[in-house]
Amino acid sequence: MSIPTVNSDRLVKTFLELVQIDSPSKKEADVADYLERILKPLGVEMWRDDAGEKIGGNCGNLHVRMPANDSKAPAILFSSHMDTVMPGLGIKPRVDDGVIRSDGTTVLGADDKSGVAVVVETLRTLRDSKMPHGPMEVIFDVAEEIGLLGANHVDLNGVNSKCAFVLDSEELDHIVYRSPSANRFYIEIDGIAAHAGMAPERGVSAIEVFARAVSSMKLGRLNPESTANIGTVNGGRATNIVADKVIVTAEARSHSNEFLETQSKHMVQQFEDAVKHFTRTFDGKVLAPAVQAEVKREFNAMNIAFNSLPYRLATEAGKTLRMEMKPLAIGGGTNANVYNEKGLPAVVIGCGMKDEHTTNEHIHIRDMETSTQLCLSILAKNHEFAR
Known about the structure:
The protein is an alpha+beta fold.
């Protein structure tokens, strides 16, 4: 089956319009409104779920369903997220020699609005070309960047697809099949305030407790499959006050759940040991700092088989485009982690963004075109598999 030609000008126009719509996490309603407006002429079914209400956002995940065309192939799902990271307000894109960038003061928002634009162009091309295909389901989700929140609140009882493709990766010729589990930490250290110049010995610095804990903590690259990081540290009130509180967020990731639990216990233990070190008595009074640690699983590991439906479809679709699709294990989490955990086999495919989460973020137009062709090829192969 021949793959229809992608309308490059339309694809770029959609992407440029998307990135100029502000959509930080939990504030994606304007993007959803735009998508509903441009997709309405296609006659697709659209609705928003209640994820926004559950996470305190202004918008739920936007679901789109296009029926089959002359095909008995099963439904497949394509997913990309509407939110972007900061600095991501007032994005001003520019096109130079086939590359789209921001003006350098913000991110571009190609993560993941390139994926959104690619999925939109896939839907439009299907409608224009009349290419045979099974049902195509889409989820444009919310709040991915702050913990995969939108995907976590997707009810798969309303999804008919047999597999899913998440467009949220750089490389076009790779299939992300494996990624780790992650734990997120919230640590609160309570010290004892005192005047830093008049009577520092009457206080216990929460900052010193934190420093001791971190100095003995295993962080960074722990082994080829595991990492740990202190993300944010907030504490202290003034230079003349012994700091009585520090709030820390951190994370640990590993492809091994057993190692992840060991590392998580180690990190919490360092805070607890540091608190004991700074407990002392002054003027007959026990000065005892305290620590409260909350550890939550952010997402669970995925490790999808090479003979699974989405992996095989992506591999065969790549061959149509003369690309050798290679397996890729990553250290980050995506919506594919969530879908796999919920029982929907999913892999991650690329849409071409580069240097995401930085003001140097950019994307080549030809890569978005190729990504759209890959999606169309996946749908074509799905139709062929069902014949």
